[in-house]
Amino acid sequence: MEAININDFNNHKIEDSVVIKRILSGEKELYEILVRRNNQKLYRVIRSYIKDDTEIEDIMQDSYVKAFTKLYQFKLESTFSTWLIRIGINESLARLKEKGKIYHLNEQSDNLSSTILEIPDNRQLNPQDKMIRNETKQILESAIDSLDIKYKTVYIMKEVEEMSLKEISVVLDLTVANVKVRLHRSKEMLKEKLYEVANDKNIFEFGFSRCDRITENVMRMIL
What we know:
- The protein has two domains: 6-102 and 206-222, RNA polymerase sigma factor, region 2, helix turn helix motif (Rna Polymerase Sigma Factor, Chain: A, Orthogonal Bundle); 122-194, Orthogonal Bundle (Arc Repressor Mutant, subunit A).
- The protein has helices at 16-24, 31-47, 53-69, 80-98, 127-132, 137-145, 149-160, 165-172, 176-194, 208-222.
- 28% of the residues are buried.
- By secondary structure, the protein is an all-alpha fold.
- The radius of gyration is 18 Å and the shape is globular.
- Helix 2 (31-47) packs across helix 4, helix 2 packs across helix 10 and helix 8 (165-172) packs across helix 9.
């Protein structure tokens, strides 16, 4: 069987389906590829529910271990990241329930407002605007954190992680129409603070050292 270079996970040279088949055939060490590929996305989604970094990392590890133990149940026609995120969200909701904070994943009581935020093209920003964008990251993160969970989660998935509306609808068990409503609502709520920075993709950075720590912990648990 052809050897897989772990470093290939960075540019996704190897399809997830191939990696999963190899893992199920006994090459457990290759799970590291899936962990590293999904660390940033999983962190950002879980952070939509939980703010404490230590608890987030704990939930991430639990999610990866649970995904590994149930990997044989994964249907290859869907994406691993979507399946993993669903596990991560369920783990997050379980934590919130333990704290007495009950949130329903597929709450669908939204109505679409007529006002929708139109995000400007970054190329329209003048040099001074571009220079200060990095300094506004903290404002952006604070503004997103102020959103209700159901809006924050959709915003992070779509605008930061660039997941499709269909993927989000599957993960959250919502209709595509309802996902659109929540996305529009979230942008509306953020309009004043985020007019020039709403497309920033570098918020809630997970960081290489933290990525390594999570990956090493998960691999130690399963090997």
